[in-house]
Design goal:
Blueprint: E1 20-21, E2 60-63, H1 88-96, H2 104-114, E3 121-124, H3 131-142, E4 152-155, H4 159-172, E5 177-179, E6 181-184, E7 199-202, H5 204-212, E8 223-226, H6 229-234, H7 238-247, E9 254-259, H8 264-273, E10 278-282, H9 305-314
Parallel strand pairs: 3-9, 3-10, 4-7, 4-8, 6-7, 8-9
Antiparallel strand pairs: 1-5, 2-10
Subcellular location: Nucleus membrane; Nucleus, Nuclear pore complex
Protein name: RNA helicase
Family: Belongs to the DEAD box helicase family. DDX19/DBP5 subfamily.
C-alpha cells in the first residue's frame, strides 16, 4: 500500500520542523521550583504545564521479560526525573514543559525503557497518562547527536498525530544542540527529499516508501516506537505496513509499542512486533481516565451525524471541545 492510501483520522495543529539546541550530557540537577501537579500527555503549555493533568492514581501492573526479576524492586520505579540520571539539557527541557514528577505510567515505564542493555516494551496507556513524554524521553536519551542519521523512528496512525508527537519531542529536546527531527508524512512537495534527522516521526506507508527509495539511511537505527497500535489495526493495512517497516530496519533495535486497549488481536500483534518485552498494563477499573464521561450513539449514516451532533450540543453546556472524525473530508461540514 502506498503512502497515499493513508487517511487522516483526527485534526491537530501542525508543529514546525526545526532543529533545537543542546550541550553534551551532564549529571541531572535538582530544581528549587515549587512542586506542581503531575503532567498530562502531549506538549506542555510554556509556563503552565500541560492542559491535561494526570490527577488519577493509576495502578500500573508490571510483567518483566526476565521472569526471575522482581517487578517491585526500586530499580524498576522512579519517583522523580532526577533519579533517572538524565542529561542536564534534557532535564531543562522537561522543566520547560512544566513537568514536575513522573506520572504513574512514566514512573514504571521510564526505568525499564532507559535500562541498558535496551529491552522491548509493550505498554497499555491512553491519552492523559504521559505516554508520549515517556517514549520521547527515552528517544532523546539514547540518540547520538554527533551522528546526523536516523536513529529513532516513531510510527503513528495519522499525520496529525505524527505532527503532535514531533512537537512533543521538539519541545522536550529544545536545549539539545544538534538535535534534528523530521516528519515523514504524505507531502506532494517532498519529492527527492532526504531524511537524515536523528528522529523521524511518520505514518507507516510514507516511512516505508522513504526507506525503499533510499531517502533515509536506517543503518544507525536504535529505537522503533509504535503508538496507538489498536488504532493501527483498526485501519486496514496499517498494521501490515508497520510490520514491513520493521523488517526494513536493523534486527536488534529497541521496540516499544503503546496501545490504549488490549483486545486479543492487539495482544497477538504486540507479542510478534515486540518480542520478549516488558509489559505494563493498567488495572481494569482504571482504563478510563477519571473525569471523562463516555457516551455512545449509534448513527446509521454519515450524513445524519452532524444533525445529531447539533442536537447533542443543544442539551449540554460546553465552552470548548475537540471533535475527531474518521476522514478529513468529514470535518468540512
Amino acid at each position: 500500500m502506498s503512502a497515499a492510501d493513508e487517511k487522516p483520522v483526527e485534526t491537530a495543529a501542525p508543529a514546525e520542523e526545526k532543529p533545537a539546541e543542546t550541550t553534551p550530557k551532564a549529571p541531572a540537577t535538582t530544581s528549587d521550583e515549587p512542586a506542581a501537579a503531575d503532567q498530562g500527555d502531549g506538549a506542555g503549555i510554556p509556563g503552565n504545564g500541560s492542559s491535561l493533568a494526570d490527577k488519577v492514581e493509576y495502578k500500573v501492573e508490571v510483567k518483566l521479560a526476565d521472569m526471575q526479576a522482581d517487578p517491585n524492586n526500586p530499580l524498576f520505579s522512579a519517583a522523580s526525573f532526577e533519579e533517572l540520571n538524565l542529561s542536564e539539557d534534557l532535564v531543562r527541557g522537561i522543566r520547560a514543559m512544566n513537568f514536575r514528577k513522573p506520572s504513574k505510567i512514566q514512573e514504571k515505564a521510564l526505568p525499564l525503557l532507559l535500562h541498558n542493555p535496551p529491552t522491548n516494551m509493550i505498554a497499555q496507556s491512553q491519552s492523559g497518562t504521559g505516554k508520549t513524554a515517556a517514549f520521547s524521553l527515552n528517544i532523546l536519551s539514547r540518540i547520538d547527536l554527533s551522528i546526523l542519521a536516523p536513529q529513532a523512528l516513531v510510527l503513528a496512525p495519522s499525520r496529525e498525530l505524527a505532527r503532535q508527537i514531533l512537537g512533543v519531542i521538539e519541545h522536550m529536546g529544545q536545549f539539545m544542540k544538534g538535535l534534528k527531527i523530521q516528519a515523514a508524512i504524505p507531502d506532494p512537495t517532498a519529492r527527492g527529499k532526504l531524511y537524515n534527522a536523528q528522529v523521524l516521526v511518520g505514518t507507516p506507508g510514507t516511512v516505508m516508501d522513504i526507506i525503499r527509495k533510499r531517502a533515509a539511511d536506517t543503518r544507525q537505527m536504535k529505537i522503533l516506537v509504535l503508538d496507538e497500535a489498536d488504532n493501527m489495526l483498526d485501519q486496514q493495512g496499517l498494521g501490515d505496513q508497520c510490520t514491513r517497516v520493521q523488517k526494513l530496519l536493523p534486527p536488534k533495535i529497541q521496540t516499544v509499542l503503546f496501545s490504549a486497549t488490549f483486545p486479543p488481536q492487539v495482544i497477538e500483534y504486540a507479542n510478534r512486533f515486540a518480542a520478549n518485552a516488558n509489559v505494563l498494563t493498567l488495572a481494569h477499573e482504571e482504563l478510563t481516565i477519571e473525569g471523562i464521561k463516555q457516551l455512545y450513539i449509534d448513527i446509521g449514516a454519515d450524513q445524519d451525524k452532524y444533525a445529531t451532533l447539533l442536537k447533542f450540543y443543544g442539551l449540554m453546556t460546553q465552552a470548548s471541545s475537540i471533535i475527531f472524525v474518521r476522514l478529513l473530508s468529514l470535518s468540512n461540514v
